[in-house]
Amino acid sequence: MSTPSKDIEKVEVRVKWDPSPHGAAADDLDIIAATYPADAPYGEPAYLVHFDSRSPDGTITLNRDSRTGQGFGFDEVMTIELYRLAERYGRVVVGVAIQQRDGRKTFGDIRSTAMEIAEGYTKLAENDFSGVAGATAAVIGEFTRDDAGRWGFLPGVRGFDGEPDAFAAEMGSRTAGG
Length: 178
Known about the structure:
With 178 residues, the protein is mainly beta. The protein has one helix at 164-170, and strands at residues 5-6, 10-16, 29-37, 47-49, 60-64, 76-81, 89-98, 114-119, 122-127, 137-145, 151-160. It has a six-stranded antiparallel sheet, covered by helices on one side. The protein has a five-stranded antiparallel sheet with strand order 5-6-2-8-9, with no helix packed on it.
């Protein structure tokens, strides 16, 4: 979908990939959500949610975490309940980072990558990361709250080259369109 969506309440972010070839180090992709205050939507995130954390209020949860890509369907799944987020938060940026513990890996090195963001049965975005094949991480979309309190979605995949910690610090520094 190329146009922003409005009045979004609850979404699922899903990522999948094929396991590494036999004998190779496992590929590990992680969904990361960064929540920003309404009065500083491009500053430091108020908090991050990823494989080893959760949101303080339980509105963002990682339901499924894979370190190998093994299994059927989507390997990583995160639920974001935007309608429950406190009014002090005005922006949530979602990204995917590749763990780099076994040497530098990019999306082009990992087989059969895919992501989708959906509200119920409606897909808001889907991508295979081929447009950012040389990147080690990517923002996959962002949610913003308007003055009336409605959440909208801006699709867009932006690649990043660096360590997951650096990506988490920088992922919300600009909009999906910029």
